[in-house]
Design brief:
The protein is an alpha/beta fold. It contains nine helices and 13 strands. A hairpin with a 5-residue loop joins strand 3 and strand 4 (47-48).
Length: 241
């Protein structure tokens, strides 16, 4: 699961732009649109994926009118705080660092293993060059290991770095990497995996407690009736509640 770090000082500069009540009649659902199977843009140019289906169902259960907004990953938290949309539903791990900046619903996925995708079974993932998307839990993990971290703005660029020899491996959510590995005979998984992150939840402004509670209750109802597990199975995202 991906994570983003933002300092308290940065939030202080953007918080003054936030709307007082967090949303009006329509709740704007912010996502990246570039991280399948969680979220992506389909051939019709619309947001699609696990989180699109989940978000639409949560809005229905919470009796909310919702619309979808896409935003680049690096600025997704600042633009939530400044009021450009009302939620983040974008494959984001719940972390202590982010909890200091924004609020969260309960998790709607369990922690997903992070996997190493390589072009050679002899790839050096311990001391070599490992790619990750900027400001993710995988990037933070590599930075603290003995490997050399190389960061890219998008997930696609991390894959390209392995294919063109710029990196020995890419570390990312296994749910994201699995279809890529299955479709490309030149790429393979290393046996070693990393369990990092605490599951994914929806991010909201700290001032939007009422909206958070509505989505929290909707997530819990999907856990209780098994529909969340069915959705996780459909999109082949590991772990069930």
């Amino acid at each position: 699961m991906k994570t983003l770090f933002l300092t308290t000082a940065a939030i202080a500069m953007t918080a003054t732009l936030a709307l007082a009540d967090g949303h009006g009649k329509t709740v704007r659902m912010g996502t990246e649109g570039a991280y399948p199977p969680y979220n992506f843009i389909n051939d019709a140019g619309e947001v699609d994926g696990f989180e699109r289906e989940l978000g639409d169902e949560l809005c229905k259960r919470a009796e909310l009118t919702c619309e979808w907004v896409t935003n680049e990953w690096d600025s997704i938290i600042p633009n939530l705080v400044s009021g450009n949309y009302d939620t983040i539903i974008a494959g984001m791990s719940i972390t202590d660092e982010r909890d200091e900046v924004i609020d969260f619903t309960q998790n709607y996925t369990l922690p997903d293993p992070s996997a190493y995708l390589v072009a050679s079974p002899d790839a050096d993932i311990a001391g070599g060059v490992v790619a990750a998307q900027t400001n993710t839990i995988q990037a933070a993990f590599i930075a603290e290991s003995g490997a050399t971290l190389v960061e890219f703005a998008t997930p696609e660029e991390t894959i390209a770095a392995v294919k063109n020899g710029e990196a020995d491996a890419v570390l990312a959510d296994k749910a994201f990497l699995s279809p890529i590995e299955a479709d490309d005979p030149d790429l393979m998984f290393m046996e070693q995996e990393e369990l990092i992150g605490g599951g994914i939840g929806m991010g909201l402004r700290e001032s939007d407690g009422e909206l958070r509670d509505k989505f929290d209750a909707a997530i819990q109802s999907m856990k209780d009736d098994g529909s969340l597990n069915a959705l996780l199975d459909k999109w082949e995202i590991g772990g069930s509640f």
